[in-house]
Amino acid sequence: MKLAPSFYFVLILVLVSRLASAETIQIDFTSDDSYSVEVAKINVGDTIEWLPKNEGHNVEFLAGPNMNSLPEKSELNAFYSVTFSLPGIYLYHCTPHGNMGMLGLIVVENDFHNLEDIKEIELSRIAKSVLQRLIRIAQLKS
Ligand SMILES: [Cu+2]
Fold it and tell me: How far does the centroid of ligand 1 lie from the alpha carbon of residue 27, in Å?
């Protein structure tokens, strides 16, 4: 099957407009050992930047749509930036405070296909209840 040249033109327009609209979301480390945005809903191509506004925190991914290729763990007190290219749910925590519930959830393209994998990640009791709250928020947020 041969596609009309106009098909490719429209396809390119769609791709370019999506790239042009890629967003950057900023999340601070806060003084009450939490992330300023606990649930971020983004699109493929969007970037999240974590800003070390408070000392003693980092970002360590625990799960994502591709468990074999999670973003690397960030240094304590360091600026960190990740651009997301796969739809699905990502769970991360702060290495020193994860057990106390310093967690964050990112949902790319409103895609919950790996929700069961996220729920199976081993967490402390407190972190588990925080995760349940974050999942509820993610499902309500459109
Ligand atoms: Cu922390």
Answer: 13
